[in-house]
Amino acid sequence: QLQLVEAGGGLVQPGGSLRLSCVATGFALDMYAIGWFRQAPGKEREGISCINLGSGGTNYAESTKGRFTISSDMAKDTVYLQIHSLRPEDTGVYYCAAERQTTCGAVTDYTFYPHEYEDWGQGTQVTVSS
Fold first, then answer.
1. Residues 20, 9: contact at Cβ < 8 Å?
2. Does the pLDDT of residue 118 top 90, yes or no?
3. What does the H/E/C string look like for the chain?
4. Interacting residues of 10 by C-beta distance below 8 A, sequence separation 6+
């Protein structure tokens, strides 16, 4: 089991950028994938991107390609999500989560199923507004 703590959310103007971080605590991190999800008010949680901490492979949801970049720093046990050109519709709570039995980074048609992620952080609020 991993403990995950997100940070980096806040209020940002449209067109701005943010870098979210997810610090993972636990054993054998390289056996996990870390995924980023977001949940807008009144909507279901949706997957954004994932990174396989063992291989470094990544996947992105079609809706987030181009403006979102996932990366990791294994020396700091941290996964980042860089978001550019923020839009009001990006507003929501952003979560990181850990998946152990994962195909993240190994397939091109990866599908984000929240129920397949075992451990979740508490989330960080991102609000995009002028």
1. yes
2. yes
3. CCEEEEECCEEECCCCCEEEEEEEECCCHHHCEEEEEEECCCCCCEEEEEEECCCCCEEECHHHCCCEEEEEECCCCEEEEEECCCCHHHCEEEEEEEECCCCCCCCCCCCCCHHHCCEECCCEEEEECC
4. 18, 125, 126, 127
Query: Is residue 82 within 8 Å of 68, Cβ to Cβ?
Result: yes
Measured between alpha carbons, how far is residue 29 from residues 51, 52, 53, 77 in Å?
Answer: 12, 10, 7, 8
What mean pLDDT do residues 119-126 have?
Answer: 97
Q: What pLDDT sits at residue 27? A: 80
Residue scoring higher pLDDT (108 or 44): 44
